[in-house]
């Protein structure tokens, strides 16, 4: 397009960014983000989201660059971005880091959305079983913000709550909130220990 003298617009750049991010090449996706900005274009949310997600599982330095880039665009902090960055910490049961990021989000005047509380609940499910009050508050806030999601997504969210609370406490809360979808607990989602940083199997129904 450039060779032909055609000035590419956002509809040209954004799919390229998304394609590289989806292919697991966040650095190339980031390079195209900068090319778009150099051309006076603002990347789409989808382009930023996919690049951020690609970096979140692979490159801490890349995440820092993405934060700076999004800050310059006026797109940081955002609830959806915080949820993406929090996921690796949640997967390791590091609920303290997730809580801190949500506090920073609120301090910046942004309210956490449902995706943030889903990630926090995921962190609690993999953390120590001494957080019942926090888990209950998180699930109640999540349920108050409940958006349209599939039955499978709902079952997985409730599975995290069930994993974090144990059967008796979860059943009490389910009756209180009127939760009817059976929680889904699988070895794949709940195989990590409650001690942060360990990976050995724990029985998913514990």
UniProtKB/TrEMBL annotation:
CDD domains registered for this protein in UniProt: SANT (cd00167)
Domain of life: Eukaryota
Taxonomic lineage of the native organism: Eukaryota, Sar, Alveolata, Dinophyceae, Suessiales
Protein name according to UniProt: Pentatricopeptide repeat-containing protein, chloroplastic
């Amino acid at each position: 397009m450039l060779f032909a003298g055609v000035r590419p617009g956002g509809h040209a750049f954004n799919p390229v960014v998304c394609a590289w991010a989806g292919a697991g090449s966040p650095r190339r996706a980031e390079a195209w983000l900068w090319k778009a900005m150099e051309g006076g274009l603002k990347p789409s949310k989808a382009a930023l989201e996919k690049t951020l997600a690609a970096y979140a599982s692979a490159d801490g330095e890349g995440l820092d660059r993405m934060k700076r880039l999004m800050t310059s665009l006026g797109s940081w902090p955002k609830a959806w971005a915080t949820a993406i960055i929090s996921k690796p910490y949640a997967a390791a049961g590091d609920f303290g880091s997730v809580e801190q990021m949500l506090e920073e989000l609120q301090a910046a005047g942004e309210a956490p959305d449902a995706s943030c509380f889903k990630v926090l609940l995921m962190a609690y499910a993999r953390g120590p079983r001494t957080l019942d009050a926090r888990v209950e508050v998180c699930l109640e806030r999540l349920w108050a913000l409940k958006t349209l999601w599939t039955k499978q997504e709902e079952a997985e969210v409730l599975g995290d709550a069930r994993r974090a609370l144990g059967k008796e406490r979860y059943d009490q809360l389910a009756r209180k909130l009127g939760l009817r979808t059976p929680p889904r607990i699988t070895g794949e989602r709940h195989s990590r220990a409650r001690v942060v940083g360990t990976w050995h199997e724990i029985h998913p129904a514990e």
